[in-house]
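Lab notebook, entry 252. We have the chain sequence and a SMILES string for LF53FM6H, and the next step in the workflow is to get a structural model of the bound complex before anyone spends time on docking refinements. Request logged below.

Task: model protein plus LF53FM6H, output structure tokens.
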Amino acid sequence: MTDRKPLIAIPADARMLGAHLFHAAAEKYLRAVTEVVQGVPVIIPAMAQWLSCDDVLDRVDGILLPGSPSNIEPHHYNGSPSAEGTLHDPARDALSLPLIQAALARGTPLFAICRGLQEMNVALGGSLHQRVHELPGMQDHREDPEQPLDIQYGPAHEVEIAPGGLLADLLDQPRILVNSLHWQGINRLAPGARAEAVADDGLVEAFAVPSAPGFNLAVQWHPEWNATANPVSTKLFETFGDACRARMRSGA
Ligand SMILES: N[C@@H](CCC(=O)NCCCC(=O)O)C(=O)O
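Result returned:
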């Protein structure tokens, strides 16, 4: 008998489409889960007022925290108010931030991408820079929205892999080339988090929480974009998938 496929929860963005509020996730994340993780993606509506963390975690084998154009509300990390016009998604904040803490405590495998990395850092007590490109000495980590998507999600800069960590173990190379589509970034890395990759301007671009009982990894770049065409991205999603399958088989 073959195993069932693991169920992978993807917290939704809450977005107005016309006159109605939708709970949505971009197809590229669903595709990475179906195609590379070999799992079944389940979009979790951003309705934390009616769904507890246990309602979700009792049923799923892993969590994928996707990127989003929206920013975390800065009061979650004692940040100064956002610039006027900043897109927020308080419903997603309310779902994701407690879910991250609960998933890490339970050992549910967790893979966090872009906004997901920022959420994981904030959920664990870290803080964010709101406009990395305006800081002296920092690179511009934003995409050019005028370019076609393949260029926006194309290779942008290298990151240095921290020796002795999870990524060093998985990838066995000192530097990798990543894409870059973000304004915000880690300011204070959360207590208990270990930097796994750092850009040349010093920005932490990946981290893990080694003391958590399950697989967990957060990356600032977008491995879900054409994941099967990039060996590093494939490896990250396959490793996450293996952790989800192991969790599922353990019956935890
Ligand atoms: N808004 C934050 C997070 C950036 C991010 O997650 N971008 C992804 C955009 C859509 C997607 O590709 O899923 C920031 O700018 O830092």
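Notes for the group: Helices lie at 27-37, 53-57, 90-106, 115-123, 149-152, 166-171, 231-250. Worth checking against the assay data. The longest helix spans residues 231-250.
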